[in-house]
Amino acid sequence: MNGTLTEAKLKALAGTRSFERGRGYLDAVTGVEIGDGWITASVHGTERYEVELSLEGPQGLTGACDCPYGLEGNFCKHLVALGLTVLAQQSTLPRQRESARSRARNLDAWLSALSKDELLALVHEQVDQDRQLRRRLEVRAASARGDLAEVRARIRELLDIGPFARYGYVEYADARAFADQAAQVVCAIDAVTDSGQANEAIDMAVEGMRLLTQAADSIDDSDGRLGEVGAGLVDAHLHACRTARPDPEALAGWLVKHVLRDLDSICDIDPLDYEDVLGERGMTALRKRAVAAWRKRRTGWAEKSLMQRLARAGGDIDMVIAVHAADLASNGHTHLAIARELDAAGRPDEALCWAERGVRETPDLAAVDTDLVDHLCERYAQAARLADVVALRREHFGARRSLLAYQQLRAAAGAAECWQEERPGALALLRTEAERGTARRYGGTVLVDALLDDKDDEAAWEAASHCGADDRQWLTLADRVRAARPADALVAYLRLAEPLIGQTGNAVYAELVGLLVSIRDCHRLLGTQDEFTAYVTVLRGAHGRKRNLMRLMEQYGL
Length: 558
Known about the structure:
The chain has 28 helices and 4 strands.
């Protein structure tokens, strides 16, 4: 255990934040029990949470806690608190483990020595105290005596949200109690199956899934507990089917209907899990019904998903492609999906054709799936078709005229050693866009950003002066040219500072002081420090009440 449970492993599993928070819960750990490979306890936080550390298995140290964060699969602060508590008691662990084993042996011996009447009295005592245990035993009793009507009634009662709902809705605080109650339905159905009435259990599982799906719409299931119940019902249905061996064609029909109706429901079924029950005849019927449903509604998401799942399982890549091809997106996204499927199947030539077709068939290249363009450029590059990469990037840039598209064109042309030839045409497009006037209205232009990205500061300054630029671009330009053109930079800094002087707030003050430092540098380069001193004096006189601004200015020697 020493090698499995360490502070380092606790911190690695929980992360620094949860680990440090766990230190604050050491006094909240009670009822520590240690067994062979497991440790349990209660940790008192917002509520009392039950936690368990597992020290064995392929993953080594793992943990489970029923707090909201733990139920999401995270190693929470409560688990950290238990782990640290156990580490602090390291020397007593062997004795505690042996004590737990001894208690278990003594309990078994005591129970074995009780008479039937004494055991019955003990069970009655527990049933009176534990409502959930009573319900579980009542369902088992009804199943054992063959009272299926009673079992069905109990299942409906267990899945009724009425006792938990306020104004027809089960809030988060009550959702866990409902989920715990609903989980008993799974045990009830399994008990019916194991009692030799598996066909009836199938019907009960179907009804249970229907009732749970209906209830889920009225429950705050933030913890995901209902999903566990739904998965349990699906497993109970599969267990009953494997036991009863129903007619495979009828089962195939039900599976298709369920998947098409409830693909996103809380009781998600994978028909392929039933392959051993369906057999060859049932799988044939399943595929036939799935194809019929898809042909009836080729654009339906559920129909397409089911068809693709079955086709992939059968290795029928052509059917997967056919399903995609029946509902092609206008932006080339589906073409890309087909290309990837074909690449994975070892059919690169067909994949390339589909990718090219996706670009060619997109009505507006500005709206094309950029992943498709990237994919096709990558394939061209792998085939040393650099001219085709440049041509596609040029076409895409011409449609989008964004900074990213410009950068991608530059990279492609650079690799093909033709950027000097490509650049003038690309900038001409951006200049035309900037000179249309919309750039002046809305601020900066892609032209200025592209020239800045090219490190062509002089051209960027000229473009900003003629076509307009936003504050971010002017600040970048001023910073870039300050050393060589301090007078021009000073004008830009003063213009940026002016609207900030009348505003308040620490973020504004930080931005203003940053500009003041730059203004001071320009005056120093120009040899006009006296002008800066006068400027700051006026500023202090007019805004001396802004104490945070004054403190920040003093910090920077302004």
